[in-house]
């Protein structure tokens, strides 16, 4: 199996520019997504909102069994369900 190592920013032809972080292992056939409770997602001081949050960041809401997507990089940027509904604004 081929392996690719990225160092520094990554730019894709579709316009994405950013850093790749976290555990990505294509050989296993899945990507591990950070998971946390709904109370943490709604807590502006929680690490899910203060560390490496960017527009498009994914988190699995273990309370409601839903995938949430960040709409921005600020600690108070909303999280929406994968279908774009149920916005949660950390406070």
Q: Strand order of the main beta sheet, please?
A: 5-6-7-8
Number of strands: 8
Number of domains: 1
Report the principal-axis shape: globular
Helix tally? 2
Describe the sheet with the most strands.
Answer: 4 strands, mixed
Tell me roughly what share of residues is in helical segments.
under 10%
Beta-strand percentage range: 15-25%
Mean pLDDT: 81
Structural class: mainly beta
Low-confidence stretches: none
Question: Radius of gyration, rounded?
Answer: 14 Å
- Give the CA-CA distance, first to last residue: 45 Å
Order of helices and strands: EEEEEHHEEE
What do you see in this structure?
- The protein is mainly beta.
- It has one domain (10-81).
- It has helices spanning 38-41, 47-50, and strands at 10-11, 17-18, 24-25, 30-31, 35-36, 58-61, 66-70, 79-81.
- The chain has a 4-stranded mixed sheet. Strands 1-2 form a two-stranded antiparallel sheet.
- The longest helix is centred in the middle third of the chain and has 4 residues, at 38-41.
- The radius of gyration is 14 Å and the shape is globular.
- 11% of the residues are buried.
Short description:
The protein is mostly beta strands and 91 residues long.
